[in-house]
Amino acid sequence: GDIRVSEGAVVNRHVVAVLGGAEVPAGADIGGRVLCFSSPATLISASSMREPSLHADISMRLLAAGGWLLVTTGLAFLFPIRMRYGAWAVPSLGIKVPALGMMAGLTVFASLIATLGLGPVLGVPLVGGLMVVFFVARAVGLTVLGCWIGAMVLKRWVGHPLPISLEVFVGVLVLLAVRFLPVVGETLWIVVSLVALGASIAVVSVSTDFMLREPSSANQ
Question: Cα dist. 151→48, 143, 217 in Å?
């Protein structure tokens, strides 16, 4: 959640916000680093401004949305078979997908806390590595969810299959629109991110098993 440090407060180590932001006034004494792990749109430390700028916040969200669209569409172009198979498999997995996402999210949270305890020399690089893994997993999950949603949306409009890159673009655009909803947008985006994390884990395991069995099935 969000962290707000009082004026004149003394923190001997780090200020770390997971799935939230950190508001640190200039008068606070922070011995370590101020780290926020929510999304690319909230990686700017709140200590640089006392009052958040609405224009800056919207600009960062739009920039992050463009980045997600670029990454997910690129994954669909590079790995179309796996992403398409994942979009077929996710609905059949049902409640297992958000359950896996919740477990993975808790694991990432516990790992962040554990690695920060190793100190700035080892802890900060390990935290960076964990965030890269988290970003890649979420990108794969968003691509799969986008393919599934985009296929359903475009099927209603067009009536026949379209290139997977276009389906992913439309589906991820729908998912990103959730974040711009007033009041509940950020909460819904966290839910989407956890579901995407679960989808990536499920799809990687299921599609890998399918790829391994496919050659033997073809030989038979």
Answer: 42, 12, 28
